[in-house]
Write a structure and sequence with these properties.
Number of helices: 6
Structural class: alpha/beta
CATH superfamily of the largest domain: FAD/NAD(P)-binding domain
Oligomer: single chain
Distance between the termini: 12 Å
Helix content: 10-25%
Radius of gyration: 21 Å
Bound molecules: flavin-adenine dinucleotide, NADP nicotinamide-adenine-dinucleotide phosphate
CATH class of the largest domain: Alpha Beta
CATH topology of the largest domain: FAD/NAD(P)-binding domain
Length: 312
C-alpha cells in the first residue's frame, strides 16, 4: 500500500512530493500523465518566482524540480488517473485508465487546470491546424508571418509579446477595453510596435481548408467586421479546473467543490474528506501562480505526514 498518492506533477504535485519524501514518508507515488512540470512548461517566460532572478522559459524553469524530488525517493508513474474512491477502511483506491488500481493511505489532488475553448466557429475544426493554446509549442511555425491572439489576461498579453519576437505582426483581439493582465505586462505590450490591439472585438469565425487556417473574421461591438488573413490564431481565454478525478462513477463529486468545480480546502489543504487533500490551481481561491501552487503542495504534504501519524 502507498502512504501517499499525488495526482498531477505540476508545481503543486512536485512540491508535495519533495516535502513528503524529504519529510520521511516512504512509498510516495506521483501519478502524472505526461512529463512532470505542469502548465507552466508551455510558458515562454517565467520571471516572478522569488529568488530566481534569471528569466527562464517554463520548461527550463521546471526541469530541476523533478530531479530534486526523485533524489529524496519520489516515484513518478506516468499514468492518467481516472478517479479516486474511498474505501470502508478510510484508505483510497486510485483508478488508472488502463484498469489497474493502487491503494493509498492519503491522496493529494494536484490536477491543476487546462485552457478553455473560446467557442467561435471553426475553433474545434482547426484546433491543432492553426488554432493553438501554446505559443512556445507552435509559435515557431509562424516565423515571419502574421498571427492573431485572443484574450486580455496575463497569458494572452505575455504570449502576444513572445509571438511578436518570432512573427511579423500580432493582432491582439480582446472583447473589451479593460484588461485583466497586470498593468506592467500590458504597458510593455502597448509599446511593442508589432502588436496591434483590436479592442471591443470577438472572433466570429476562423476559416481555412485542408491545410489549415487561412483567416480570422473579427467582429467589433459596433457591428463592423475585419478579415485578418492570418494562418494562425492563439487563444488564451482562461482556464477550467481538471476535477474529473474527484467524481465517482455516477459523476458525483466525492468531496465539496464550489460552483466552478474548484475543490474546497482549509488552510491545511484538507478537503471535506479526511485523508484527501488538494493543492494548487485546483483549489478554491487559487491565485494561479507557480509560487502559490508550490506552497500549497508543501502545506498539503506536511498535513499528510501529520494525518498518517495520527490515523494509521
Ligand atoms: P498544473 O501546472 O496545471 O499541473 C497539473 C498537472 O496534473 C499537469 O501536469 C497534468 O498533466 C496533470 N494531470 C491532470 N489531471 C491528471 C490526471 N487525471 N492524471 C494524471 N495527471 C493529471 N504562473 C506564474 O507564477 N508565473 C508565470 O509567469 C506564469 N505564466 C503562465 C503562462 C502560461 C502560458 C500558463 C498556462 C500559466 C502560467 N502561470 C504562471 C500559471 C501557473 O502555470 C499555474 O498556476 C501552475 O502551473 C499551477 O500548478 P498546479 O501544479 O496546480 O497545476
Ligand atoms: P484569465 O485571467 O481568466 O483571462 C482570460 C481572458 O480571456 C480575459 O481577458 C477574458 O475577457 C477573455 N475571455 C474569456 N472568455 C472569452 C471568450 N469566450 N472569447 C473571448 N475572450 C474571452 O486567464 P489567463 O490569462 O490564462 O490567466 C489565468 C491565471 O493565470 C490568472 O490568474 C493569471 O493571473 C495567471 N497567470 C499569471 C501569469 C504571471 O503571473 N505572469 C502569467 C499567465 C497567467 P474578460 O477580461 O472580458 O473576462
Amino acid at each position: 500500500m502507498l502512504n501517499l498518492a499525488i495526482i498531477g506533477g505540476g508545481p503543486a504535485g512536485l512540491a508535495a512530493g519533495l516535502y513528503a519524501t524529504r519529510g520521511g514518508l516512504k512509498d510516495v507515488v506521483m501519478f502524472e500523465q505526461g512529463m512532470p512540470g505542469g502548465q507552466i512548461t508551455s510558458s515562454s517566460e517565467m520571471e516572478n518566482y522569488p529568488g530566481v532572478a534569471t528569466v527562464l522559459d517554463g520548461m527550463s524553469f521546471m526541469a530541476p524540480w523533478q530531479e530534486q524530488c526523485f533524489r529524496f525517493g519520489l516515484k513518478h508513474e506516468m499514468a492518467f488517473v481516472q478517479r479516486v474512491s474511498q474505501n470502508s477502511d478510510k484508505t483510497f483506491t486510485i483508478h488508472l485508465d488502463d484498469g489497474k488500481t493502487q491503494i493509498a493511505k492519503a491522496v493529494i489532488v494536484c490536477t491543476g487546470s487546462e485552457p478553455k475553448r473560446a467557442g467561435f466557429k471553426g475553433e474545434d475544426e482547426f484546433f491543432g491546424r492553426g488554432v493553438s493554446t501554446c505559443a512556445t509549442c507552435d509559435g515557431f511555425f509562424y516565423k515571419n508571418k502574421e498571427v492573431a491572439v485572443l484574450g486580455g489576461g496575463d497569458t494572452a498579453i505575455e504570449e502576444a509579446q513572445y509571438l511578436a519576437n518570432i512573427c511579423s505582426k500580432v493582432y491582439l483581439i480582446h472583447r473589451r477595453e479593460g484588461f485583466r493582465a497586470a498593468p506592467i505586462t500590458l504597458e510593455k505590450a502597448r509599446k511593442n510596435e508589432k502588436i496591434e490591439f483590436l479592442l471591443n472585438a470577438v472572433v466570429d469565425e476562423v476559416y481555412g481548408d485542408k491545410s489549415g487556417v487561412n483567416g480570422v473574421i473579427v467582429k467589433f461591438k459596433d457591428g463592423s467586421t475585419r478579415d485578418l488573413k492570418v494562418p494562425g490564431i492563439f487563444t488564451f481565454v482562461g482556464l477550467n479546473v481538471r476535477n474529473s478525478v474527484i467524481k465517482d462513477e455516477a459523476g458525483k463529486f466525492i468531496c465539496d467543490v464550489n460552483e466552478a468545480g474548484q475543490i474546497v480546502v482549509n488552510l491545511k489543504m484538507q478537503t471535506s474528506v479526511p485523508g484527501l487533500f488538494a493543492a494548487g490551481d485546483i483549489r478554491i481561491d487559487a491565485p494561479k501562480q507557480v509560487v502559490s501552487a508550490a506552497a500549497d503542495g508543501a502545506v498539503a504534504a506536511l498535513s499528510v505526514i501529520s494525518y498518517i501519524e495520527a490515523n494509521h
